[in-house]
Structure formats: structure tokens, C-alpha cells
Design goal:
about 230 residues, alpha+beta, Mannose-Binding Protein A, Chain A, five-stranded mixed sheet, four-stranded antiparallel sheet, about 35% helix, globular
Length: about 230
């Protein structure tokens, strides 16, 4: 059940199941055909699909009580992840139909990308030190961004290009625990996800900032600058 299939089904449903009525207005030589109930029916349909998907995921992912566990049970976490992905796609569809912020998968002011929500502080009109930025993210159930592949790097770079007056962006990379050993905020080494290195490394520069071209630079953690938070959607 892909988002494209659901979108096509929604269009067919509206065309074949939602009734329309003709309303004649006095003084007009034409009969205006007014389609009623489209928005309500669309919301009802997508909401119903969401509830059905949740029920299907619970029934298909939960093991039966009266049968022993076997090797297929190892696939349950993967099935649950797939269900979460489909539910996220349905939430995006519902938000697109209703334009209601309550249906969004990310908080107001955050950007959604590939199953994660990102917050960029450019709009706050304030800069913070690296530790202050990390505390801000933690207070919003997130962490300073950990960049895991080139596609994510390109996404963040695209956002940065929209704010050229900011020279850099704090990310979740530091060598405060051991000088010269750069670690992401999730506890992994800098080379764990992709080949990267930090320029200008020095004893007094223990926090990394991201600059144009996807380059990471070592900087004084007490410098003030914008930052990026990241959390699961």
C-alpha cells in the first residue's frame, strides 16, 4: 500500500463516490455545479485508512500467544519499522489534504526529510555556543544533527544556501572526550557513516561546524553561531 496507490485511490474515490448537486441561482442563465463534501470525505477516507493500517500492523506484527517463537519472529522489528513508515506517509497525505498543522509529522517550525524532523535556528535571530545549542536540541527531544550520508549532507547544504549570511552551522560532532578523536553525538566515530574529516583541528578547537561544500571545521566551542537539531518523525 504505497502513497502513490493511496493518492490514486483517493482521486478515483472522489470521482466515483462523492455525490454532487446542481444549484440554480436566481438571475443566472447557467446552472452552477457545486461539489459538496469533498474535503470531509477525503479526511474521513484517509483517517479510516490510517486506522486500518495501524490495526493491520498490530495484528500482523504481534506473535500469536499459543505458538512458540521461531526465526520469523526476528523479522518483527523490520515489520514494525515498515508500518511506521507507511503511517508517516499517510500522515503526510492527511496533512496535504487538510492543511491542518495537527496532522503534520513534525512540530511547527521543523522540516521533515526522510523520516526525520530538522530544526534550523536561522529564524531565531540569535546565535549560541555549541553546548547551548546542544542543550536547546535536547530540550526539544532531539540532538545536534548527526549526518549519516551524502544525501543528508546535500539536504542540509540546500537549507544553508538559503541563508548565505550565516558562515557555518553547529552539528553534533566533537572531540571533547579525547583530543583528535571526533565523535558524533550518537557515540559513533566520524568515519562510521561516511568518509569525512575535520579541518583546522587544534587543542583549543573541540567542536565541529559545517560550512559550504560539506566541509567540517574544528572551532572553539564558545563561539556563537546557528545550529541544526535532528529527531525522528
Amino acid at each position: 500500500m504505497t502513497p502513490n496507490f493511496l493518492s490514486s485511490w483517493l482521486e478515483v474515490y472522489k470521482a466515483t463516490h462523492i455525490p454532487s448537486r446542481s444549484v440554480s441561482y436566481p438571475g443566472s442563465c447557467q446552472t452552477c455545479r457545486v461539489t459538496v463534501g469533498v474535503a470531509v470525505s477525503a479526511v474521513t477516507l484517509v483517517t479510516g485508512l490510517s486506522l486500518c493500517l495501524i490495526l493491520f500492523c498490530l495484528l500482523s506484527a504481534a506473535p500469536e500467544v499459543d505458538r512458540p517463537l521461531n526465526t520469523s519472529d526476528k523479522e518483527l522489528p523490520e515489520q514494525l519499522l515498515q508500518c511506521r513508515k507507511k503511517l508517516s506517509d499517510l500522515s503526510l497525505m492527511l496533512h496535504a489534504v487538510t492543511r491542518d498543522s495537527r496532522c503534520g509529522v513534525c512540530p511547527d517550525g521543523w522540516m521533515w526529510w526522510r523520516g526525520h524532523c530538522y530544526f534550523f535556528s536561522f529564524g531565531l535571530q540569535e546565535d549560541r555556543q555549541w553546548n547551548e545549542s546542544a542543550e536547546f536540541c535536547q530540550g526539544h527531544n532531539s540532538s545536534l544533527a548527526v549526518i549519516k550520508d551524502s544525501a543528508e549532507m546535500d539536504f542540509i547544504q540546500d537549507v544553508m544556501r538559503k541563508f548565505p549570511r550565516f558562515p557555518f552551522l553547529w552539528v553534533g560532532l566533537t572531540d571533547t572526550q579525547q583530543e583528535g578523536r571526533w565523535m558524533w553525538r550518537d557515540g559513533t566515530d566520524i568515519q562510521h557513516y561516511m568518509l569525512m574529516k575535520v579541518e583546522w583541528d587544534a587543542d583549543h578547537r573541540d567542536c565541529a561546524d559545517l560550512r559550504g561544500g560539506g566541509t567540517l571545521f574544528a572551532a572553539d566551542c564558545e563561539e556563537h553561531g546557528p545550529w541544526a537539531c535532528k529527531r525522528e518523525s
